[in-house]
Design a protein that fits this description.
Blueprint lengths: L8 E5 L4 E6 L4 E2 L4 H5 L8 E4 L2 E4 L8 H7 L5 H15 L5 H22 L17 H6 L18 E2 L3 H19 L4 H20 L6 E3 L5 H10 L4 H6 L2 E5 L5 E5 L3 H24 L22 E4 L21 E3 L6 E6 L6 E9 L9 E9 L7 E6 L10 E5 L6 E2 L1 E9 L8 E3 L1 E6 L10 H18 L1
Antiparallel strand pairs: 1-2, 2-3, 4-5, 6-10, 7-9, 8-9, 10-12, 11-19, 12-18, 13-16, 13-17, 13-20, 14-15, 14-18
Helix pairs in contact: 6-10, 6-11, 7-10
């Protein structure tokens, strides 16, 4: 809580071992100097409120402590420190002594780190923008617009990192499952039945307590148990993608439970459910469900992930550019002024060179007039300095919400380390100024063969090996 009228959050990172600035309004994290350097705010008091205490964290957000101190005239500094310490002690009075000791040790370490950072030099390579959320004139009236007064309000926001490795793992993990169904000569209806059984198992698991999620195969009907036991080895990779594992006891009871951090499972489950619905839809669309079905778009392998994304504009805080790559229907990239044209650039992880062979777009949850209708896909082999057209689409129409459209790239052998989608028009630009898209998935060519084809034998081998190990156990 900032006394100059702004509220944000801090999250304790166990990986970094410290508190981390996190501003959901502007979609920026771990940039504590955002307000002083970017927004040009004259800070005074910044107070952090937690269940185990109340803290003065102002020093974390400034490199001009002497100036800030001159504006802190509500109460003497010792009186403020005494008051906050008293409130913190009261918050901790019912905690165990060892917990209090650990918190006090954390507080000391935090205070030392803040004092060190207070006099550290800024990283000149980091550009901190003026305020992005809120109306332009409102931000200017609050002196939060920053120093770049000439920038466009709909211009590109910050470069964002896609945290979507779990999405790619889930997409890949359906390969062994579908391959095993084909190997068993399952009909389309039988394949859908198996996938629905697995979905229901995970729905039950999702309903269980967050930190102790567990579901037993024994709770299923005898018929469903038989199906699951037959297919379970092929689901191993998918469970791993969800941070889940199988456990069995001497009585033959098999449970599915958490394998690691429950947060990972919570993030991955919505992606799984939405991807599973799409797999079921694609199975039903197959003319013949057989070995020849093991290709795009039923199998979606080699999805790009962990790249950097830059967009012409975005709607804060929920319509940011990376929302197009998070694998769920619950979010979307929204460009407030994109109806007459907008763009999004995807830079490949670690600047690697890959060939784009296919991509998939999904319509968002509402407002069909904002759907893309015409676009161009381009690739760049120099990080975005020059572009080459890879695909063009016109007169495309999404007839349903959450509808997926897949497109294959006809030009072959073009390696790129960045891709740009230029959306030229929406479905009804007279009815809206906005553009939106539910998801964008980009797929690379698998090494040494036609796209995705190498999965067939590999998936068969993985499934057979898992079945053999289960039989031996």
């Amino acid at each position: 809580m900032d006394f100059t009228d702004h509220v944000w959050t801090e999250c304790f990172s166990t990986f970094l071992g410290r508190w981390m600035h996190l501003d959901p309004c502007d979609g920026i994290y771990d940039r504590p100097l955002l307000y002083e350097t970017g927004w040009k705010k004259d800070l005074n008091y910044i107070i952090a409120i937690a269940k185990d205490g109340v803290y003065d964290v102002t020093k974390r957000y400034t490199r001009n402590w002497c100036e800030v101190l001159s504006r802190r005239n509500i109460t003497p500094e010792p009186a403020l420190s005494t008051l906050l310490s008293s409130i913190t002690r009261d918050c901790r009075k019912n905690l165990a002594s060892e917990v209090v000791s650990a918190l006090e040790e954390r507080d000391r370490n935090e205070a030392e780190a803040v004092e060190r950072d207070l006099y550290s030099k800024d990283d000149a390579s980091i550009s901190l923008p003026g305020r992005q959320s809120g109306d332009k004139q409102w931000c200017i009236s609050r002196s939060e617009y920053g120093s770049d007064k000439n920038r466009s309000w709909s211009s590109s926001g910050p470069m964002r990192k896609c945290i979507d490795g779990h999405v790619t793992k889930i997409y890949n993990a359906f390969g062994p499952v579908v391959s095993q169904l084909v190997k068993q000569s399952s009909s389309k209806s039988r394949a859908v039945e198996v996938l629905e059984i697995f979905k229901n198992i995970l729905v039950d698991l999702k309903k269980s307590p967050f930190r102790t999620r567990r579901v037993s195969i024994k709770s299923l009907s005898n018929g469903a148990q038989y199906v699951v036991n037959q297919m379970l080895p092929s689901f191993g990779q998918l469970l791993d993608a969800l941070s889940l594992k199988m456990e069995s006891d001497t009585n033959g009871r098999i449970d599915i439970c958490l394998a690691s951090d429950p947060v990972k499972t919570s993030i991955a489950l919505p992606v799984l459910f939405h991807a599973l619905d799409n797999v079921i839809h694609n199975v039903n669309q197959c003319d013949n469900f057989n070995k020849h079905s093991l290709s795009w778009p039923l199998l979606k392998l080699n999805r790009f992930c962990s790249g950097l994304v830059l967009a012409s504009g975005e709607e804060l805080p929920f319509g940011i550019a990376t929302s197009a790559f998070d694998g769920t229907r619950m979010s979307k990239w929204e460009e407030p002024n994109g109806a007459r044209g907008c763009w999004i650039i995807y830079k490949v992880f670690e600047n690697q060179m890959h060939e784009l062979v296919a991509y998939e777009l999904m319509s968002a949850n509402d407002a069909s007039e904002r759907d893309p209708m015409e676009w161009v896909v381009e690739g760049s082999d120099d990080g975005g300095s020059t572009w080459r057209v890879l695909d063009k689409q016109t007169c495309q129409m999404f007839t349903k919400r959450f509808q997926r459209k897949t497109f294959e790239i006809q030009s072959q052998g073009v390696l790129s380390n960045a891709f740009r989608l230029r959306f030229l028009a929406v479905r009804d630009k007279q009815a809206t100024s906005r553009f939106q898209i539910g998801s964008i998935d980009l797929f690379a060519r698998s090494q040494g063969n036609q796209m995705m084809n190498s999965l067939t034998n590999e998936a068969y081998e993985e499934t057979e090996e898992a079945m053999r190990k289960m039989d031996e156990a």
